[in-house]
Here is the input.
Amino acid sequence: MSMPTIDQVLAAGRNLVSYAMGIATAFGILKVNGIDLSVISTSLDHIFNGIKEISIGLGPLVTIAAGWWAAHRSSKAVQVANVNAMPEVKGVVTTATPEGRALADAIPSPTVAAAGTPAAANVAAKT
Here is the structure.
């Protein structure tokens, strides 16, 4: 990852200053109009407590979903399908074992086949 350029730092700084000035302006207008800032502070506390509660509830669900996704993406069938989808790869031939045949059968593609089958001969002929 490269370091940000001075232009990127200045652009981010301008956005932060704009944000801070917007908040200061809003609080100034509310104060001039006689609105008690403690009410706003209490309301913001309620909002952020709600966000905190939602985050606490979603945390385990996101962790479980990420674990499932990682397990799914690391399965042999998905890996072989991904390799088969590469433009540099003409096809994938698995071993002639029961596991290799099951793996080839799990991927619906004419370019994935178990060794010793006519489909494997077709894949080998494409190279």
